[in-house]
């Protein structure tokens, strides 16, 4: 086990330093989905083929860790180490540190276009600032007095300014590599960009507003194409996401009323269909094989025809599911029950097999076309097993066996490897680079 010695020499940088450029690392990945760790008991399995090297990174209770190619970025929120520290992924050696100014919280958004994107938020009041650092040196490449709110076309950043007596709320599209402003447009207060898969592949940007409304804008200019939804009468709270729009592929979903969703084509904004079902919300849709699926705590999992909006099948006892290639992995309401993870055919909802009792950490993201999940289970003798769950073959392959009390595990993409990150009782991070 390798333990990082945080007493090594490193460069300490200032937020006021002039931007400079050094050599660049290849593009990192953003963490796609973080799922809660569920503890379960196991009685059978097999050990991995070979030991997996481990790295330990000491950290505080409120710390977070970002994995990007050959770098780790440790963000501490409590004194005396408040700020961001860059570590070498291979051995944990400190490379540079960016202290957080007094009264400011720093958080890492991710690595995009060879830039580490950081959000600086005041602890009390005042505008937020988004900045980009050189991952190799920590030098500030660019900064804007606006808060990161989402992703635009071609990996651009969408930033939002705060309103003032002279200026309205403004949405700004910024090139991640250079910080160049591509466009800026005034938007309604409380408008938020709607997540579109892992990246915006459409030429349109969708903004969600309160009161079941949405705005569709041109991604290249920010120009308003059309506002969709009822007129403003009794706006709801901006954080009521049950009424927020959703986007899956070329379909835009907007709430038409209680348990009602209206679907539009994203490009031409033509009305496709209206569906009324118990528990139906516009942000509950996701792609599963050749159809749409919808999840809700009230109604469970259902398969929906994307052309008509008609429900093909309903499994009310399954409130959790993951689409993996042309299969679905779902969890029963009684989780963890025997054979609690099952593989389904999205077209029919038919059960194809069971994967056993695993808590799902998320999709293995490292390689293009990844078609497997990472699962964890705890044995009665104190072991912790991590397995690659393959719905295509309905099999679970053990990738790592370890001991010790750990939790809060997540799977990250680190260049050409998949990195498992867990927390120890002393809040240190434990990292393993899983074999391909």
TrEMBL record:
Classification via SUPFAM superfamilies: Quinoprotein alcohol dehydrogenase-like
Name of this protein: Outer membrane protein assembly factor BamB
Pyrrolo-quinoline quinone repeat domain sequence ranges: 62-144
Pfam families: PQQ_2
Organism ancestry: Bacteria, Bacillati, Actinomycetota, Actinomycetes, Micromonosporales
Gene3D superfamilies registered for this protein in UniProt: YVTN repeat-like/Quinoprotein amine dehydrogenase
Top-level lineage group: Bacteria
């Amino acid at each position: 086990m390798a333990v990082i010695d945080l007493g090594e020499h490193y460069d300490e940088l200032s937020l006021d330093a002039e931007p400079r450029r050094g050599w660049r690392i290849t593009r990192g990945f953003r963490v796609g989905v973080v799922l809660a760790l569920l503890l379960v008991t196991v009685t059978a399995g097999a050990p991995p083929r070979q030991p997996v090297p481990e790295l330990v990174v000491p950290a505080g209770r409120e710390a977070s860790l970002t994995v990007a190619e050959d770098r780790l970025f440790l963000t501490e929120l409590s004194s005396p180490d408040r700020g961001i520290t860059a570590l070498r992924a291979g051995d944990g050696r400190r490379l540079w540190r960016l202290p957080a100014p007094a009264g400011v919280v720093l958080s890492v958004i991710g690595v995009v276009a060879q830039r580490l994107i950081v959000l600086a938020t005041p602890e009390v009041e005042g505008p937020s600032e988004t900045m980009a650092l050189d991952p190799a040196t920590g030098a500030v490449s660019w900064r804007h007095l606006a808060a990161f709110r989402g992703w635009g076309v071609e990996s651009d950043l969408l930033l939002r300014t705060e309103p003032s007596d002279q200026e309205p709320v403004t949405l700004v599209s910024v090139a991640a590599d250079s910080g160049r402003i591509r466009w800026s447009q005034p938007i309604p207060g409380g408008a938020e960009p709607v997540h579109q898969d892992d990246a915006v592949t459409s030429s349109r940007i969708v903004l969600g507003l309160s009161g079941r409304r949405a705005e569709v804008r041109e991604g290249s200019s920010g120009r308003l194409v059309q506002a969709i939804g009822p007129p403003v009468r009794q706006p709801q709270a901006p954080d009521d996401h049950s009424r927020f729009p959703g986007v899956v592929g070329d379909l835009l979903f907007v709430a038409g009323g209680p348990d009602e969703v209206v679907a539009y084509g994203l490009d031409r904004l033509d009305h496709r269909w209206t569906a009324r079902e118990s528990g139906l919300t516009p942000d509950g849709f996701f792609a599963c094989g050749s159809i749409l699926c919808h999840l809700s705590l009230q109604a469970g999992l259902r398969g929906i025809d994307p052309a008509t909006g008609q429900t093909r099948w309903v499994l009310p006892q399954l409130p959790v599911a993951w689409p993996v290639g042309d299969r679905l992995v779902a969890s029963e309401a009684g989780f963890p029950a025997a054979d609690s993870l099952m593989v389904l055919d999205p077209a029919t909802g038919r059960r194809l097999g069971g994967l056993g009792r695993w808590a799902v950490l998320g999709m293995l993201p490292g390689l293009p076309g990844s078609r497997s999940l990472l699962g964890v289970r705890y044995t009665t003798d104190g072991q912790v097993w991590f397995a690659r769950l393959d719905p295509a073959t309905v099999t679970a392959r053990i990738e790592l066996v370890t001991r010790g009390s750990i939790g809060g595990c997540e799977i990250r993409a680190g260049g050409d490897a998949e990195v498992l990150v867990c927390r120890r009782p002393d809040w240190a991070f434990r990292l393993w680079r899983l074999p391909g």
